[in-house]
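Exercise: predict the structure of this protein bound to nicotinamide-adenine-dinucleotide.
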Amino acid sequence: MDFKRNIIITGGAGFIGSHVVRLFVNKYPDYHIINLDKLTYAGNLANLKDIEDKPNYTFVKADICDFPKMQELLQQYHVDGIIHLAAESHVDRSIKDPFTFAQTNVMGTLSLLQAAKLYWESLPEKYEGKRFYHISTDEVYGALELTNPEGLPSPFTTKASSAHHHAYGREFFTEDRRYQPHSPYSASKASSDHFVRAFHDTYGMPTIVTNCSNNYGPYQFPEKLIPLFINNIRHRKPLPVYGKGENVRDWLYVEDHARAIDLIFHKGRIADTYNIGGFNEWKNIDIIKVLIKTVDRLLGRKEGEDMDLITYVTDRPGHDKRYAIDSRKLQRELGWEPSLQFEEGIEKTVRWYLDNQEWMDNVTSGDYQKYYDNMYKNR
Ligand SMILES: NC(=O)c1ccc[n+]([C@@H]2O[C@H](COP(=O)([O-])OP(=O)(O)OC[C@H]3O[C@@H](n4cnc5c(N)ncnc54)[C@H](O)[C@@H]3O)[C@@H](O)[C@H]2O)c1
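Solution:
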């Protein structure tokens, strides 16, 4: 079958990638969506069970660092668009093992860029109609000060933040903010962002970079705060909180991020950068209290009875105090808005993890890694 577009989505078996793959496969039956993923510990094909048999979906197990393989796949599938999410993504792991982060996030991105450059430049139309869209994080901008530690009414609001309308400082990250990464993870993402922009400036590759705030929602690997704590509360295990839990993060429902990626992939200006976030700042400790109350309520426990699970542990080294994204450019230029209020999103998310205990058990036991083998062994 001839498709209108052939798009590789890297990291499509991960948390955000699986939502982007699902959105594109369902919304664009005339696009061929190739999910390219190495299936590290963070990749889980069970995240995509509902779409794996669709005719416009193909999964390829490959490592973005494998440059000859990237060249082969681009040619084989006549790829005209790349949405690049594959990365090592957990800050704590980057503190223990920075080399893997430099390898995947920097060298892997470079391998993909160079393969795209060679393939697209070999075509008669060259870069026309092509797009290399790189997904990055707000963490590259470094940390903001907590100048309003108690939180003041925010000058900006979106649907995401309309109930809890706080800003914990005066400054926000805009797209022209200086890069100042602090963790090996954010340093590797910053470096990959620079390479992507360099490929535009040097070779004229049509690139786009977006920097998004913290995502939450279904299918997130339970090493990250929200799924980890939902599971721990359910099983009444301790909730280890770094420092005093005062660090502030800006949270966005993952499907709102996926919708932004769709919009920007199609309508974003080439060589440009867009920040994605909901002006939805929360202190970690306040999120944890919301999670405890929500899990308790949904499990029929007395709301808040599990507050004593909170256990304060030594802070993460170099722990950034506050991230706050200014996403007004994306709202103004492309009309994007978060669709969910944070409280609704958290309720939906908690319900999903409680209703999908089997998914959680497979991930926490490591059984999900057998899913791929079982799925493909008889084909
Ligand atoms: N999670 C967030 O809150 C957040 C916020 C902003 C930006 N981001 C960025 O979005 C992207 C996706 O994040 P996530 O949270 O979904 O990550 P994730 O860790 O859940 O998924 C990463 C995926 O990449 C795959 N992968 C890792 N190394 C690979 C390699 N060498 N080759 C091919 N595939 C490989 C993994 O198997 C996994 O499926 C990352 O680039 C991350 O930096 C994440």
